[in-house]
Every structure is written in structure tokens, then in C-alpha cells.
Specification:
Length: 275
């Protein structure tokens, strides 16, 4: 999806993302950083820069962020709207790096994250293949840096009040998240468990905390957009759901507009720290 069409979705979800991310993991991360030494932070799949806008003011000391994305328009937006100060007022600087963040193999003999203090990402793990995850873990291990990866889908969604079709749509959506691509099969909702295993196998200490979206009447625009995409992906994975979901979508969106539908989309945040 091109940046021009993805940017509105990223803007729509930014406040919900900020409210969902684990502040406990940030407190743990703060204790690991030396506020007297500049931190070099690589943000993978930065989008419009929401992770940096959320995290940079919460971390102490000077920071240099390297923003990675495959979309040059998103990179420009991120760099233009990045915070200039860390917690306590230290300077924050930024540069961009264009490329595919789902593949972090060394290029020209150089480690992809050389010199990094911290690697961050948001809503990225489920888009990785098993090989892509191993490359990410290997790059972090090679750099001996921590990794804070937030808002990875877990495959669990709750709609209240519930309907019988919810479970079928949820299972089909999870099938879509695990779809085969030219690069391999995506990890989807299995990504967090796979990442925990891979980082621990590499000797890292790993903490996982929940980071759910809890969407109600104040979040109708986000919930409606998410719901439409959720059902569309489910139907793409299981075309036999096309007919039964037509009435279902109408009922659910009507309930949402009337303030009678609550949505919880479960995610998990992960912090991996080298031993």
C-alpha cells in the first residue's frame, strides 16, 4: 500500500496505539539507558513516525533516531514531524533510511544495525516470515542492542455484544495473517511467541506485556475502519464468508454508530535485552 493511502490509517490509529503501548516496558528500558551517552535508536517500519513521537519524549538523554521504511513518502512525513527533545530536554536528531525492513540481511559486509543502542518497531512482527524474524534477532544480537517491539497482533479479538459469526471471521482473519507470500509464510498471530523463543535462544532476557486496543463510542472512526479491514481480510482468506458477512457487516456498523458495540483487539509488546 502506498504512503498516500496508508498515512490516513496510521493517523487514525496513532492515539489508540499510544494509549495501548506498555509504559511498564518503557520504565524498564529507561533504567537500561545511560542518559549521559547518546542513544542510537533504529525504528523499523517507522510509518509516519508515531513510535518516535510516543517514545522519544519518554526516554532520557540525547537520542539519534534512524527511521527505516520502504515508503519514501512516509519517511519524509516521519522526519518532518519528529520530536526535537527527549525527557529532560536533551536533543533528539533524526535521519532516514529507505529499504525493506522485513529483510535485515547484511549488505556489503556491514551489519544492518551496527552501532545501535535500541531497535524499535510497531505493528511489524506479524508481517515477518520466520526467516525475517531470525534476521531481526541476529541483527540485534550482532549489535548487542535491546529491542522494543510493540502492538503485535495476537489473533484474539472481542466484540461486545458477541455474535456467532465473530469466531468464524476471527479465525479466517488469522488465516489471512498467516498467508504465503513470495518471501515465505507470514508469522501473523504466531509472531510474538516465535520472537520470544528466538530472542531467548539467542541469550536475551525477554519481557512481554499486553497492549490491547479497547475501542468504544469515542473511537467509532478507528473501530469502523478496523472492522471493515478485518472482515475484508477474512473474506479474502475464506471466500465462502462473502455471503454470510454482508448482513453481519451492516448490523455491526449500525451498532457501532449507535454506540452499542465495543471492540477489543489484543496485541502484545515485547522488550528483549541482551544478557
Amino acid at each position: 500500500m502506498a504512503g498516500g493511502s496508508l498515512a490516513p490509517w496510521l493517523a487514525l490509529r496513532e492515539d489508540a496505539d499510544a494509549g495501548a503501548r506498555s509504559t511498564e516496558l518503557v520504565q524498564r528500558l529507561r533504567s537500561l539507558l545511560d542518559e549521559h551517552r547518546p542513544a542510537v535508536i533504529h525504528d523499523l517500519g517507522c510509518g509516519t513516525g508515531s513510535m518516535g513521537r510516543w517514545l522519544a519524549p519518554r526516554l532520557p538523554g540525547p537520542q539519534h533516531w534512524v527511521l527505516h521504511d520502504r515508503d519514501p513518502d512516509l519517511l519524509r512525513r516521519a522526519a518532518a514531524n519528529f520530536p526535537g527533545a527527549a525527557a529532560g530536554g536533551a536533543a533528539v536528531t533524526v535521519r532516514t533510511r529507505h529499504g525493506d525492513v522485513t529483510r535485515l540481511a547484511p549488505a556489503d559486509g556491514a551489519a544492518p544495525l551496527a552501532g545501535a543502542t535500541l531497535v524499535t518497531a510497531s505493528a511489524l512482527l506479524d508481517l515477518l516470515t520466520a526467516d525475517g524474524l531470525e534476521q531481526l534477532v541476529a541483527a540485534c544480537v550482532s549489535a548487542r542492542c535491546s529491542a522494543l517491539v510493540t502492538l503485535s497482533v495476537t489473533g484474539s479479538v472481542e466484540l461486545s455484544p458477541a455474535e456467532p459469526l465473530d469466531a468464524r471471521v476471527g479465525a479466517a482473519f488469522n488465516d489471512h495473517q498467516r498467508r504465503a507470500t513470495a518471501a515465505g509464510r507470514l508469522l501473523g498471530p504466531d509472531a510474538v511467541e516465535a520472537a520470544v523463543t528466538a530472542f531467548r535462544r539467542a541469550g536475551a532476557q525477554v519481557l512481554v506485556r499486553p497492549s490491547p486496543w479497547r475501542l468504544g463510542s469515542a473511537d467509532r472512526a478507528l473501530a469502523g475502519s478496523w472492522f471493515a479491514g478485518w472482515v475484508a481480510a477474512a473474506v479474502e482468506a475464506r471466500p465462502e464468508l462473502h455471503a454470510p458477512t454482508r448482513g453481519y457487516v451492516g448490523r455491526r456498523l449500525t451498532a457501532l454508530r449507535a454506540g452499542r458495540l465495543a471492540v477489543t483487539v489484543h496485541h502484545a509488546d515485547l522488550l528483549a535485552v541482551p544478557s
